[in-house]
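User: Last request for today: this protein with iron/sulfur cluster, please.
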Amino acid sequence: MKNKTALLKVSNITKSFPIPSSFFSAKKQTFQALDDISFELFEGECLGLVGESGCGKSTLAKVLVHLEEATSGKIVFKETDITHIEKNKLKSVRAEIQMIFQDPFSSLNPRQSIAKTIQEGLDIHAIGTKAWRKEHVRNLLQKVGLESDLVSKFPHQFSGGQRQRIAIARAIATSPKLIICDECVSALDVSIQAQILALLKDLQIENNLSYLFISHNIAVVQYMCDRILVMSAGRILEILPSANLQENAKHPYTKELLKAVLSPEFKQENDTLKKESVDKELRNTNGIIDTGEMLASNETITTGKTTNIASVKDKEIALNISGETAGSLKENAGLQEKKTENEKKEQAYTMTNSFACPFYPRCPQALAICETHVPDGKNFQLGHGMQTVFCHLYD
Ligand code: SF4
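Assistant: Here's the final one, the structure of the complex with iron/sulfur cluster:
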Protein backbone atom coordinates (compact mmCIF):
# COMPACT_ATOMS: atom_id res chain seq x y z
CA MET A 1 0.00 0.00 0.00
CA LYS A 2 1.78 3.15 -1.24
CA ASN A 3 -1.05 5.66 -0.90
CA LYS A 4 -2.07 6.96 2.51
CA THR A 5 -5.15 8.91 1.41
CA ALA A 6 -8.18 7.98 3.49
CA LEU A 7 -10.91 6.54 1.29
CA LEU A 8 -13.30 5.83 4.17
CA LYS A 9 -13.42 7.58 7.55
CA VAL A 10 -15.66 6.11 10.21
CA SER A 11 -16.11 8.17 13.38
CA ASN A 12 -17.84 7.11 16.61
CA ILE A 13 -20.42 4.90 14.92
CA THR A 14 -23.03 3.32 17.19
CA LYS A 15 -25.89 1.07 16.24
CA SER A 16 -28.54 -0.08 18.68
CA PHE A 17 -31.56 -2.29 18.13
CA PRO A 18 -34.69 -2.16 20.29
CA ILE A 19 -35.42 -5.26 22.34
CA PRO A 20 -39.15 -6.08 22.33
CA SER A 21 -40.46 -5.28 25.82
CA SER A 22 -42.13 -8.07 27.75
CA PHE A 23 -45.70 -7.97 29.14
CA PHE A 24 -44.34 -7.36 32.68
CA SER A 25 -41.81 -4.70 31.78
CA ALA A 26 -42.79 -1.38 30.26
CA LYS A 27 -39.16 -0.23 30.19
CA LYS A 28 -37.74 0.00 26.67
CA GLN A 29 -34.41 -1.76 26.29
CA THR A 30 -31.89 -1.64 23.46
CA PHE A 31 -29.11 -3.91 22.32
CA GLN A 32 -25.92 -2.03 21.48
CA ALA A 33 -24.57 -3.89 18.42
CA LEU A 34 -21.90 -1.27 17.64
CA ASP A 35 -20.35 1.03 20.20
CA ASP A 36 -18.08 3.97 19.34
CA ILE A 37 -16.46 2.47 16.23
CA SER A 38 -13.80 4.70 14.63
CA PHE A 39 -11.23 3.85 11.96
CA GLU A 40 -9.84 4.90 8.59
CA LEU A 41 -9.42 2.81 5.46
CA PHE A 42 -6.82 4.03 3.00
CA GLU A 43 -6.87 3.87 -0.81
CA GLY A 44 -5.49 0.55 -2.08
CA GLU A 45 -5.49 -0.91 1.42
CA CYS A 46 -6.85 -4.25 2.53
CA LEU A 47 -8.14 -3.67 6.06
CA GLY A 48 -9.06 -6.78 8.02
CA LEU A 49 -11.91 -6.92 10.52
CA VAL A 50 -11.68 -9.93 12.80
CA GLY A 51 -13.73 -11.16 15.72
CA GLU A 52 -15.93 -14.09 16.69
CA SER A 53 -19.47 -14.61 15.44
CA GLY A 54 -21.96 -12.08 16.81
CA CYS A 55 -19.37 -9.40 17.63
CA GLY A 56 -20.91 -6.87 15.21
CA LYS A 57 -18.72 -7.32 12.11
CA SER A 58 -21.59 -7.87 9.69
CA THR A 59 -23.70 -5.13 11.33
CA LEU A 60 -20.84 -2.71 10.69
CA ALA A 61 -20.68 -3.84 7.03
CA LYS A 62 -24.44 -3.27 6.68
CA VAL A 63 -24.18 0.18 8.25
CA LEU A 64 -21.38 1.13 5.83
CA VAL A 65 -23.47 0.18 2.76
CA HIS A 66 -26.67 1.63 4.28
CA LEU A 67 -28.50 -1.66 4.62
CA GLU A 68 -28.81 -0.48 8.25
CA GLU A 69 -28.88 3.14 9.47
CA ALA A 70 -26.28 4.13 12.06
CA THR A 71 -27.80 5.31 15.36
CA SER A 72 -25.08 7.96 15.70
CA GLY A 73 -21.64 8.79 14.34
CA LYS A 74 -20.28 9.78 10.95
CA ILE A 75 -19.25 7.95 7.76
CA VAL A 76 -17.18 9.86 5.20
CA PHE A 77 -16.46 8.22 1.83
CA LYS A 78 -14.18 10.02 -0.64
CA GLU A 79 -14.47 13.16 1.49
CA THR A 80 -18.29 13.16 1.30
CA ASP A 81 -20.42 12.64 4.38
CA ILE A 82 -22.63 9.66 3.51
CA THR A 83 -24.00 9.00 7.01
CA HIS A 84 -27.52 10.13 6.18
CA ILE A 85 -27.29 10.35 2.41
CA GLU A 86 -30.50 10.85 0.40
CA LYS A 87 -31.85 7.90 -1.54
CA ASN A 88 -31.18 9.40 -4.99
CA LYS A 89 -27.49 9.96 -4.12
CA LEU A 90 -27.13 6.56 -2.46
CA LYS A 91 -27.32 4.87 -5.86
CA SER A 92 -24.00 6.35 -7.01
CA VAL A 93 -22.33 5.47 -3.69
CA ARG A 94 -23.51 1.87 -4.06
CA ALA A 95 -21.76 1.65 -7.43
CA GLU A 96 -18.50 2.54 -5.67
CA ILE A 97 -18.95 0.41 -2.54
CA GLN A 98 -19.76 -3.21 -3.35
CA MET A 99 -20.15 -6.29 -1.18
CA ILE A 100 -19.24 -9.95 -1.53
CA PHE A 101 -21.29 -12.11 0.81
CA GLN A 102 -20.44 -15.27 2.70
CA ASP A 103 -22.74 -17.74 1.01
CA PRO A 104 -22.28 -18.03 -2.76
CA PHE A 105 -25.36 -20.28 -2.88
CA SER A 106 -27.89 -17.78 -1.56
CA SER A 107 -26.23 -14.57 -2.78
CA LEU A 108 -27.03 -15.35 -6.45
CA ASN A 109 -30.55 -15.36 -7.84
CA PRO A 110 -31.19 -18.97 -8.97
CA ARG A 111 -33.59 -17.76 -11.69
CA GLN A 112 -31.14 -15.32 -13.27
CA SER A 113 -28.54 -16.31 -15.85
CA ILE A 114 -24.92 -15.44 -15.09
CA ALA A 115 -25.00 -12.74 -17.78
CA LYS A 116 -28.01 -11.06 -16.16
CA THR A 117 -26.54 -11.40 -12.66
CA ILE A 118 -23.28 -9.67 -13.56
CA GLN A 119 -24.89 -7.12 -15.87
CA GLU A 120 -27.57 -6.03 -13.37
CA GLY A 121 -25.37 -3.41 -11.68
CA LEU A 122 -24.34 -1.97 -15.06
CA ASP A 123 -28.01 -1.71 -16.09
CA ILE A 124 -29.06 -0.06 -12.81
CA HIS A 125 -26.31 2.54 -13.05
CA ALA A 126 -26.71 2.90 -16.85
CA ILE A 127 -23.03 2.28 -17.47
CA GLY A 128 -22.01 1.89 -21.16
CA THR A 129 -24.03 0.85 -24.18
CA LYS A 130 -25.92 -2.44 -24.42
CA ALA A 131 -23.26 -3.99 -26.67
CA TRP A 132 -20.45 -2.80 -24.38
CA ARG A 133 -22.15 -4.29 -21.30
CA LYS A 134 -22.45 -7.68 -23.00
CA GLU A 135 -18.78 -7.67 -23.92
CA HIS A 136 -17.81 -6.37 -20.45
CA VAL A 137 -19.60 -9.29 -18.77
CA ARG A 138 -17.65 -11.78 -20.90
CA ASN A 139 -14.38 -10.00 -20.02
CA LEU A 140 -15.28 -10.02 -16.32
CA LEU A 141 -15.87 -13.77 -16.39
CA GLN A 142 -12.42 -14.27 -17.90
CA LYS A 143 -10.92 -11.92 -15.29
CA VAL A 144 -12.25 -14.12 -12.46
CA GLY A 145 -10.98 -17.31 -14.12
CA LEU A 146 -14.15 -18.61 -15.81
CA GLU A 147 -14.88 -19.34 -19.47
CA SER A 148 -16.67 -16.40 -21.13
CA ASP A 149 -19.12 -18.71 -22.92
CA LEU A 150 -20.68 -19.72 -19.57
CA VAL A 151 -22.77 -16.51 -19.58
CA SER A 152 -26.04 -18.29 -20.41
CA LYS A 153 -25.71 -20.83 -17.55
CA PHE A 154 -27.53 -20.59 -14.20
CA PRO A 155 -26.05 -20.58 -10.66
CA HIS A 156 -27.05 -24.19 -9.87
CA GLN A 157 -24.77 -25.37 -12.68
CA PHE A 158 -21.67 -24.15 -10.85
CA SER A 159 -19.62 -25.29 -7.86
CA GLY A 160 -19.31 -23.21 -4.65
CA GLY A 161 -15.95 -21.73 -5.67
CA GLN A 162 -17.20 -20.91 -9.16
CA ARG A 163 -20.28 -19.18 -7.73
CA GLN A 164 -18.06 -17.05 -5.52
CA ARG A 165 -16.04 -16.12 -8.64
CA ILE A 166 -19.31 -15.03 -10.26
CA ALA A 167 -20.16 -12.97 -7.14
CA ILE A 168 -16.72 -11.34 -7.41
CA ALA A 169 -17.30 -10.57 -11.12
CA ARG A 170 -20.64 -8.95 -10.16
CA ALA A 171 -18.91 -6.90 -7.43
CA ILE A 172 -16.19 -5.51 -9.71
CA ALA A 173 -18.55 -4.88 -12.68
CA THR A 174 -19.23 -1.24 -11.76
CA SER A 175 -15.50 -0.50 -11.14
CA PRO A 176 -15.95 0.17 -7.40
CA LYS A 177 -13.32 1.81 -5.19
CA LEU A 178 -14.14 -0.27 -2.11
CA ILE A 179 -15.31 -3.87 -1.75
CA ILE A 180 -16.57 -5.21 1.57
CA CYS A 181 -15.83 -8.94 1.70
CA ASP A 182 -18.07 -10.34 4.46
CA GLU A 183 -16.73 -13.81 5.38
CA CYS A 184 -16.44 -14.36 1.62
CA VAL A 185 -14.41 -17.58 1.85
CA SER A 186 -15.85 -19.06 5.06
CA ALA A 187 -18.42 -21.23 3.28
CA LEU A 188 -15.87 -22.65 0.86
CA ASP A 189 -13.80 -25.76 0.96
CA VAL A 190 -10.26 -25.12 2.30
CA SER A 191 -8.53 -25.79 -1.05
CA ILE A 192 -10.90 -23.38 -2.85
CA GLN A 193 -10.42 -20.66 -0.21
CA ALA A 194 -6.78 -20.25 -1.28
CA GLN A 195 -7.76 -19.82 -4.95
CA ILE A 196 -10.38 -17.18 -4.14
CA LEU A 197 -7.99 -15.27 -1.84
CA ALA A 198 -5.32 -15.29 -4.56
CA LEU A 199 -7.89 -14.00 -7.08
CA LEU A 200 -8.94 -11.18 -4.74
CA LYS A 201 -5.29 -10.18 -4.25
CA ASP A 202 -4.69 -10.11 -8.03
CA LEU A 203 -7.81 -8.04 -8.65
CA GLN A 204 -6.84 -5.61 -5.91
CA ILE A 205 -3.50 -4.86 -7.57
CA GLU A 206 -4.95 -4.81 -11.09
CA ASN A 207 -7.83 -2.44 -10.24
CA ASN A 208 -6.35 -0.49 -7.28
CA LEU A 209 -9.18 -1.75 -5.08
CA SER A 210 -9.55 -1.24 -1.34
CA TYR A 211 -11.02 -4.06 0.73
CA LEU A 212 -12.67 -4.24 4.11
CA PHE A 213 -12.05 -7.93 4.66
CA ILE A 214 -14.27 -9.41 7.36
CA SER A 215 -13.53 -12.82 8.85
CA HIS A 216 -13.61 -14.77 12.10
CA ASN A 217 -10.32 -16.40 11.06
CA ILE A 218 -7.32 -14.28 12.06
CA ALA A 219 -4.94 -16.44 9.96
CA VAL A 220 -6.87 -15.63 6.76
CA VAL A 221 -7.03 -11.94 7.69
CA GLN A 222 -3.29 -11.87 8.41
CA TYR A 223 -2.58 -13.39 4.98
CA MET A 224 -4.84 -10.95 3.12
CA CYS A 225 -4.59 -7.63 4.93
CA ASP A 226 -2.25 -4.69 5.51
CA ARG A 227 -3.83 -3.77 8.86
CA ILE A 228 -6.24 -5.52 11.21
CA LEU A 229 -9.10 -4.27 13.38
CA VAL A 230 -9.89 -6.66 16.23
CA MET A 231 -13.47 -6.47 17.44
CA SER A 232 -15.48 -7.96 20.29
CA ALA A 233 -19.01 -7.29 21.56
CA GLY A 234 -19.52 -4.30 19.27
CA ARG A 235 -16.26 -2.51 20.16
CA ILE A 236 -12.84 -2.25 18.56
CA LEU A 237 -10.20 -3.65 20.90
CA GLU A 238 -7.04 -3.29 18.84
CA ILE A 239 -5.88 -1.85 15.50
CA LEU A 240 -2.49 -2.98 14.24
CA PRO A 241 -0.45 -3.80 11.12
CA SER A 242 -0.71 -7.45 10.04
CA ALA A 243 3.08 -7.89 9.67
CA ASN A 244 4.67 -9.70 12.65
CA LEU A 245 1.27 -10.04 14.25
CA GLN A 246 2.31 -12.72 16.74
CA GLU A 247 5.08 -10.53 18.17
CA ASN A 248 3.20 -7.23 18.08
CA ALA A 249 -0.28 -8.14 19.34
CA LYS A 250 -0.85 -6.45 22.71
CA HIS A 251 -4.52 -6.91 23.58
CA PRO A 252 -5.33 -10.09 25.57
CA TYR A 253 -8.23 -10.84 23.20
CA THR A 254 -6.00 -10.61 20.08
CA LYS A 255 -3.53 -12.95 21.79
CA GLU A 256 -6.35 -15.43 22.49
CA LEU A 257 -7.42 -15.30 18.83
CA LEU A 258 -3.86 -15.97 17.72
CA LYS A 259 -3.56 -18.94 20.08
CA ALA A 260 -6.66 -20.39 18.43
CA VAL A 261 -5.01 -20.59 14.98
CA LEU A 262 -4.57 -24.21 13.89
CA SER A 263 -1.15 -25.75 14.52
CA PRO A 264 1.02 -26.36 11.39
CA GLU A 265 0.93 -30.17 11.97
CA PHE A 266 -2.84 -30.13 12.03
CA LYS A 267 -3.00 -27.96 8.91
CA GLN A 268 -0.60 -30.26 7.05
CA GLU A 269 -2.57 -33.35 8.02
CA ASN A 270 -5.80 -31.65 7.03
CA ASP A 271 -4.44 -30.42 3.68
CA THR A 272 -3.53 -34.00 2.74
CA LEU A 273 -6.97 -35.21 3.74
CA LYS A 274 -8.66 -32.39 1.84
CA LYS A 275 -6.58 -33.15 -1.28
CA GLU A 276 -7.62 -36.78 -1.13
CA SER A 277 -11.21 -35.65 -0.72
CA VAL A 278 -11.02 -33.26 -3.72
CA ASP A 279 -9.39 -35.96 -5.89
CA LYS A 280 -12.10 -38.40 -4.91
CA GLU A 281 -14.82 -35.86 -5.67
CA LEU A 282 -13.34 -34.98 -9.06
CA ARG A 283 -13.05 -38.65 -9.99
CA ASN A 284 -16.78 -38.98 -9.29
CA THR A 285 -17.83 -35.76 -11.05
CA ASN A 286 -18.49 -35.16 -14.72
CA GLY A 287 -19.43 -32.00 -16.58
CA ILE A 288 -19.01 -28.42 -15.50
CA ILE A 289 -16.72 -28.86 -12.47
CA ASP A 290 -13.46 -29.00 -14.36
CA THR A 291 -11.35 -26.21 -12.84
CA GLY A 292 -10.06 -28.12 -9.85
CA GLU A 293 -13.03 -27.10 -7.73
CA MET A 294 -15.61 -29.24 -6.03
CA LEU A 295 -19.07 -28.45 -4.81
CA ALA A 296 -18.70 -26.61 -1.48
CA SER A 297 -18.99 -29.16 1.24
CA ASN A 298 -18.53 -29.11 4.98
CA GLU A 299 -17.34 -32.66 5.08
CA THR A 300 -14.17 -34.47 4.26
CA ILE A 301 -13.31 -38.14 4.50
CA THR A 302 -10.89 -38.95 7.29
CA THR A 303 -9.59 -42.43 7.96
CA GLY A 304 -12.99 -44.03 7.84
CA LYS A 305 -14.75 -41.26 9.78
CA THR A 306 -16.47 -38.04 8.72
CA THR A 307 -15.39 -34.76 10.32
CA ASN A 308 -17.10 -31.39 10.06
CA ILE A 309 -14.23 -29.10 9.06
CA ALA A 310 -16.38 -25.96 9.06
CA SER A 311 -16.84 -26.38 12.81
CA VAL A 312 -13.07 -26.30 13.40
CA LYS A 313 -12.91 -22.68 14.46
CA ASP A 314 -10.97 -22.60 17.64
CA LYS A 315 -8.01 -23.94 19.45
CA GLU A 316 -9.86 -26.44 21.59
CA ILE A 317 -11.30 -28.19 18.57
CA ALA A 318 -8.05 -27.92 16.61
CA LEU A 319 -5.96 -29.42 19.36
CA ASN A 320 -8.35 -32.23 20.12
CA ILE A 321 -9.54 -33.23 16.70
CA SER A 322 -6.26 -34.80 15.56
CA GLY A 323 -6.93 -37.61 18.07
CA GLU A 324 -10.07 -38.51 16.08
CA THR A 325 -11.88 -40.79 18.46
CA ALA A 326 -15.58 -40.80 19.08
CA GLY A 327 -14.77 -39.61 22.60
CA SER A 328 -12.72 -36.65 21.44
CA LEU A 329 -15.41 -35.59 18.97
CA LYS A 330 -17.93 -35.66 21.80
CA GLU A 331 -15.53 -33.65 23.94
CA ASN A 332 -15.11 -31.15 21.11
CA ALA A 333 -18.85 -30.73 20.83
CA GLY A 334 -18.91 -30.00 24.59
CA LEU A 335 -16.13 -27.43 24.29
CA GLN A 336 -17.92 -25.76 21.39
CA GLU A 337 -21.11 -25.60 23.46
CA LYS A 338 -19.17 -24.19 26.44
CA LYS A 339 -17.60 -21.55 24.19
CA THR A 340 -21.00 -20.53 22.82
CA GLU A 341 -22.30 -20.27 26.39
CA ASN A 342 -19.34 -18.04 27.30
CA GLU A 343 -20.02 -15.84 24.27
CA LYS A 344 -23.68 -15.54 25.29
CA LYS A 345 -22.66 -14.64 28.86
CA GLU A 346 -20.25 -12.04 27.51
CA GLN A 347 -22.91 -10.53 25.25
CA ALA A 348 -25.42 -10.44 28.12
CA TYR A 349 -22.78 -8.88 30.37
CA THR A 350 -21.88 -6.24 27.79
CA MET A 351 -25.56 -5.41 27.24
CA THR A 352 -26.04 -4.60 30.88
CA ASN A 353 -22.56 -3.20 31.61
CA SER A 354 -21.76 -0.81 28.77
CA PHE A 355 -19.23 0.87 31.07
CA ALA A 356 -17.00 -2.27 31.31
CA CYS A 357 -14.32 -3.64 28.99
CA PRO A 358 -16.21 -5.98 26.62
CA PHE A 359 -13.62 -8.73 27.17
CA TYR A 360 -13.82 -8.47 30.98
CA PRO A 361 -15.92 -11.64 31.59
CA ARG A 362 -13.30 -13.81 29.82
CA CYS A 363 -10.05 -11.90 30.29
CA PRO A 364 -7.34 -13.84 32.15
CA GLN A 365 -5.57 -10.56 33.09
CA ALA A 366 -8.59 -8.49 34.15
CA LEU A 367 -8.05 -5.68 36.68
CA ALA A 368 -10.60 -4.14 39.05
CA ILE A 369 -10.88 -1.01 36.86
CA CYS A 370 -11.86 -3.15 33.84
CA GLU A 371 -15.30 -3.81 35.35
CA THR A 372 -16.15 -0.15 35.77
CA HIS A 373 -14.37 1.76 32.98
CA VAL A 374 -14.23 1.21 29.22
CA PRO A 375 -10.55 1.57 28.27
CA ASP A 376 -9.49 4.43 25.97
CA GLY A 377 -7.25 3.79 22.96
CA LYS A 378 -3.50 4.05 23.51
CA ASN A 379 -1.27 4.59 20.47
CA PHE A 380 2.09 2.95 19.89
CA GLN A 381 4.46 3.65 16.99
CA LEU A 382 5.19 0.39 15.16
CA GLY A 383 7.81 0.82 12.40
CA HIS A 384 6.09 3.07 9.84
CA GLY A 385 2.66 2.18 11.16
CA MET A 386 0.60 2.84 14.25
CA GLN A 387 -0.93 0.43 16.73
CA THR A 388 -3.92 1.34 18.91
CA VAL A 389 -4.83 -0.78 21.93
CA PHE A 390 -7.97 -0.45 24.06
CA CYS A 391 -6.87 -2.10 27.31
CA HIS A 392 -6.23 -0.92 30.89
CA LEU A 393 -3.00 -2.94 31.02
CA TYR A 394 -1.44 -0.14 28.94
CA ASP A 395 -2.80 2.84 30.93
S1 SF4 B 1 -9.12 -3.81 29.79
FE1 SF4 B 1 -8.95 -5.31 31.43
S2 SF4 B 1 -10.48 -6.88 30.97
FE2 SF4 B 1 -10.17 -5.69 29.13
S3 SF4 B 1 -8.63 -6.83 28.02
FE3 SF4 B 1 -7.52 -5.28 29.20
S4 SF4 B 1 -7.00 -6.29 31.10
FE4 SF4 B 1 -8.55 -7.57 30.12
